[in-house]
Structures are given as C-alpha cells and as structure tokens.
Amino acid sequence: MAQLVSISGAADRVMAALVSGLEIEFGRQAGAALAERFLEAEEADFHWEARVLERWLGCYHGVEEAEIDLDRVRIIGQIGGRWFVAVMLVDGDGNAHGMLGKRNFRSAQQARRAFADA
C-alpha cells in the first residue's frame, strides 16, 4: 500500500534555494543552468526527496555480491513543476542508491494514474 510522505514542496524549495545561491555566486544567467547540472548529478537523491507517495515493490536482486540489501520502491513526486513516477533503489535506512527508471508527466492526474497502474 502507498505511504504518504509529508515533504510536498520541499524539493521545489530546495531547487529555488539552489538556483538563488548559484545566481548570487555566479550571476543570474548561470544560476538555472548550474542548478540543472546539480540536479542531473544528484538525480536519484533529488527525486527521492521530492516524492509525495511511495510504494514498496520488492527486493532488488540485481547484484549478487552486493554488500547491502536494496529494495525497489515506486515513487511519485514533482520537481520544478514537472510530475514524475520513478522506481528507486533504497536501502533499509531509507536512503536512495539509484534510480531504475523514470517517466515525466504534464499533470498530477496523469502521474497518479501511472503510479496506480504500474
């Protein structure tokens, strides 16, 4: 069953603060571009923090010699006004270790349907 996570809007606030700080440091033109680079580099962490709902899918058996056990978790969330549904690799402490796939949606309704259907 999906679990509600009370962090709605947190990722947008983080992104806004990141852009603002980069604009102060590197100028208005560079702020948004550099923020996109940060988002790409830390994609899994940003999406995990931006989740609104999550649902456990099962254990991840991708690597036989893994030092830690990972689970597959489907999430839905929003970053920068764009809705997404993704499958994350998460450890037992709730830390994201990667993203197996992600789809973007134009509306919350489309994303919720994809989250429920998958």
Any overview of this molecule?
It is a single chain. A hairpin with a 4-residue loop joins strand 4 (82-91) and strand 5. The chain has 118 residues and is an alpha+beta fold. Helix 1 (10-26) packs across helix 2 (28-41). Residues 1-8 have low confidence and may be disordered. It has one domain. 22% of the residues are buried. 41% of the residues lie in helices and 36% in strands. This is Transposase. It comes from Sphingomonas qomolangmaensis.
How many domain units?
1
Strand adjacency order, main sheet: 1-2-3-4-5
Which structural category do the helix and sheet elements fall into?
alpha+beta
Radius of gyration: 15 Å
Mean pLDDT, all residues: 83
The helix content, as a percent range, equals 40-55%
From the spread of the alpha carbons, the general shape counts as: flat
Q: Which assembly state applies to the chains in this document?
A: single chain
Counted beta strands? 5
SSE inventory with pairings:
Blueprint: E1 3-4, H1 10-26, H2 28-41, H3 43-49, E2 51-60, E3 70-79, E4 82-91, E5 96-105, H4 108-117
Antiparallel strand pairs: 1-2, 2-3, 3-4, 4-5
Helix pairs in contact: 1-2
Defining key terms:
118 residues; alpha+beta; 5-stranded antiparallel β-sheet; 4 helices; 41% helix; 36% strand; flat; disordered N terminus
